[in-house]
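Ticket closed. Logging final result for MTTase N-terminal domain-containing protein.
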Amino acid sequence: MLGRLYSSGGVSFLSRTRHVAVGSFSSLCTLSNSATHTSPGASSPRKKNANLHEGPGIDHFLRAANSIEATSARTAVEGASSLGRRQVYLETYGCQMNVNDSEVVLSVLQNNGYGRTEDIQSADVILVNTCAIRENAESKIWHRLNYFRSIKKPSHRSLSKRARRQATSGEAPRRSKGPVVGVLGCMAERLKHKLLESDKLVDIVAGPDSYRDLPRLISIVDGELEGEADGAWRGHDNTQAGAINVQLTADETYADITPVRDASAISAYVSIMRGCNNMCAFCIVPFTRGRERSRPISSIVDE
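Final structure:
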């Protein structure tokens, strides 16, 4: 059954009806610190600043992002089957695009041997998909990261629970210094290395175009890829290294990845495009998600 398709910020909302209506692209700047939200009211007209055109454009920010060397160029982990059935816990903040991105992240990780858990205490990897459109959104993430730090030093009880689970399920043994913590999305793209420097709260930083690389980044932090950690970020007490990939691309749409969704849900978000070419003075989206690019129509229809 086809569904009614509404376009919002590069993500189409699909509800189960008999008709299809594709809306026009609307502002991607409706990001907030919750999965559903409304955009702020339009501001009153202001006198144009004669010097506004002299400020940095999107090319400046793209050059800055691309000047940061990713921890590697590969997007897959050799011998991924050796990862075992480790568990990933994922939290999502922000817009519909982030909801859809989180489903893509889960698909990438499941295809590399990870399972999903809703129990943060039993997670081997903790990921938070973030928003950067408002200060309040980032403040909430910093509070969560401080909470995650307490989980990095697990109690004897939680270690025993994890050991029993691994023994009964045949999971690969993991290091005993707590879960890997990763920040994804727009806040990761905006702050980059600053997140790895932030009082050892974060192990992995991955921008919106780097989700295919997550299995390898996790393996680098865990020290599973020999020799690769030499190029990673040093200075973490719970891991051998931190890892980062915040490269923006001109063509990544994840069109070939089938998002992981709740089969019982009556609605879903279908991404039809990524990025934005509009340089609105109040919006950071072009700098955190890159230039506008659309998915092939065939992949949208298939999904």
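The domain at 65-167+176-245 is CATH 3.40.50.12160 (Rossmann fold). No further action required.
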